Amino acid sequence: MNLALLLHRAAARGRDRPAVAHGARVLYTYGQLAHRAGALGAAMRSRFSLDSGDRVALAMTNTPAYVDCLFACWHAGLAAVPINAKLHPLEIRYILEHSGARLCLATPDLADALSPEVTGLPDLETLVGLGTPERPSAEYRRILEFEPNGPAVCGGGDLAWLFYTSGTTGQPKGAMLTHRNLRAMLLSYFVDVDSIAPHDGILHAAPMSHGSGLYILPHIAAGALQVVPESGGFEPAEILTLLDTHKGVTMFAAPTMLNRLVEHMGRAARDPGGLKTIVYGGGPMYVEDLKRARAQLGNRLVQIYGQGESPMTITSLTKADHARGDHPRYEVRLGSVGQAQTVVEVRLGNEAGARLPPGEAGEILVRGDSVMPGYWRDPDASARTLRGGWLHTGDIGIFDEDGYLTLIDRSKDLIISGGANIYPREVEEVLLRHKGILECAVIGRAHPDWGEEVVAFVVARPDEALDTASLDAICLEHIARFKRPRSYRIVDSLPKNSYGKVLKTKLREQS
Question: DSSP letter at 393?
Fold first, then answer.
């Protein structure tokens, strides 16, 4: 089934229902959105001569037009290639060339920067600047005047979204997400994450090229409102203002975003307004931070664990899990990523891939309808990652007897010191118990005798002074002596990528 039918069915149920807002202002209804997507899809076929399966790059900061363009690709039977807007133009050029995109739609900031970079690309024929919501470009206005036709026929295995990984360990790989993969993801949202009513909405403060954009789908399926902040990103004060305007709001947030919002709300003495749900994921959410968030927000939190290769769909920790403060293992569960989502099987494997029982640490393996069929133009990486029919995530975890999965670390972040395994996440959780630490990251550093030693990078809270003795004391109170850091680096901030993930590769360079 073509994902474009989600939009057309929502429009049939309520053509006059608000569909897309820019800040507080509704721009168009579901009937208008369906018409725009159909017109743009028709232009992609006739004006730009694209054929079924061709790739269309979306080099766009968050903008209301993202919704138009995404569904237009599917309407025309094409594959969308959403690109992280914060990448360097040369990195974007790599994705354009590797994906073989024939058309690139770009917001003004990126269109100007990309114009000299796209010259000479063998497949790319056209770069279209969209203009702004208030002043669309003349070209974008012209292609929206095309007469819509019916959605293309697409099979479940047809490519829908080419999801490029962050590329922190080399050139990014394109995870091929099909119509079946994304349909499984959106159905799992309703079972394992949250409900959505037609009067609800989603606030896109995180990049629409990744997690927030993937959640466009279930909200379109439910006929809910897509809200794009006027800033195009995450500004806590702006978000609180929008939560006074819109009701039943869901927002996807990386843990760093959630922590910033909670701190801002605390300083401003604000309540959550129309916030219904924050789905957080994309990095470790530490228990102490989570306690503060729950105290500020109440029971509005859901955690998901997923990867681009199984988008947003490996496990979830539900609102009910967050609310069970009377459970004897409550804090342990808060530190977990929940239970397997409905559309996947999840198990742990050793180096040979053999299944491990609860209580033993191993690599997290996943299979199901949400898992990609492979990487674009990379059969070797596809074979390695999907060997034995399972997605090998590269993450290490432990299941408890009730099926709750705790992420220990990325396999590449594991520290081996004196032959003993040390998981940075465990040390980080302990350090964050210190009242003076805002955030921290733990890495391994080469040691001539022990192989590696533990180094902690810590950021102090405002007006707090940190000393090694107090940091050592809290570690020795909670973990074995051999796990405690041998060196503490007090820094002003931790290096992060555009999704808020700490770049431990950068920290290793500084250690």
Answer: E
Exposed, middle or buried: residue 237 (CB in 10 Å: 0-12, 13-18, 19+)?
exposed
From the list 314, 313, 258, the residue with the least C-alpha distance to 291 is: 258
Q: Which residues neighbour 94 within 8 Å (Cβ) at sequence distance 6 or greater?
A: 171, 172
Mark whether 184 and 149 lie in a shared domain.
yes
Q: Which domain holds residue 61?
A: 4-399
Q: Are 457 and 383 found together in one domain?
A: no
Q: Rounded CA gap, 185 and 342, in Å?
A: 10
> Per the structure, how many domains does the chain have?
2
Q: Are residues 359 and 480 located together in one domain of the fold?
A: no
249: β partners: 201, 275
Q: Crossing angle, helix 255-268 and helix 287-297, to 10 degrees? A: 50
Per run of 10 residues, the mean pLDDT along the chain (length 511 residues) is 97 98 98 98 97 98 97 98 88 93 95 85 92 95 95 96 73 94 98 97 96 97 98 96 97 91 92 96 86 95 96 98 94 96 97 91 96 97 96 94 90 75 85 94 87 93 91 89 91 84 87 77
Of the candidates 75, 10, 38, 40, which has an alpha carbon nearest to the alpha carbon of residue 218? 10
In a domain, 284, yes or no: yes
Please give the sequence-ordered ranges of beta strands (E in DSSP) within 76-173, or none if there are none: 79-83, 103-106, 126-129, 159-164
- Note the helical H segments in 119-178: 138-143
Give CA 174 to chain center in angstroms.
Answer: 15
Structure tokens that stand for 42 in this block: 């028709």
458 assigned to some structural domain: yes
- Domain containing residue 288: CATH number: 3.40.50.12780
Nearest one of 290, 175, 221 to 14, comparing CA atoms: 221
- Whether residues 394 and 432 share a domain: the answer is no
Q: Do 365 and 245 share a domain, yes or no? A: yes
